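Handout, section B. The chain below has 143 residues.
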Amino acid sequence: MHRPAPAWRLFRLSAVYFVLLALGAPAMPAPAVAGPDFPFGQELLLDVKPMRGSKRVPSLEIASNGATAIDLWCNRVQGQIVVAGSTITIMRGPIIERQCTPERMRGDEAMLAALLQVTGWKRQGDIVILEGAKRMRFRISTN
């Protein structure tokens, strides 16, 4: 039976990553790729309806090296995705805050918390499912 890594180990890994980033370390090597199925180099759109009064839905823009721009309901967060087999880790970086409603701010907090708890992924055609405390379905953008 596979056990997830203890939280302290993931925290230590992300802390080391951000210390190296802050010190200006050379670009880190590309993350382990789970075969050609993980959609590196693409944008994923959360498969939900926009909040009332908006056309925006959360998305992940994933570069080929795993660097990720996470657009939430309101704000944007820089991050890093590491994939090994069917295991995935999402680490957050700086947040770019925008003015928005309290409802969207609460949505941002919930969405970011769910993304940081993701431990697994699978792909079904143009759908990528992230598994963790909450299951999230993303569509691969086709434009």
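Note. The helical segments are 7-22, 102-116. Compare this with the example in section A.
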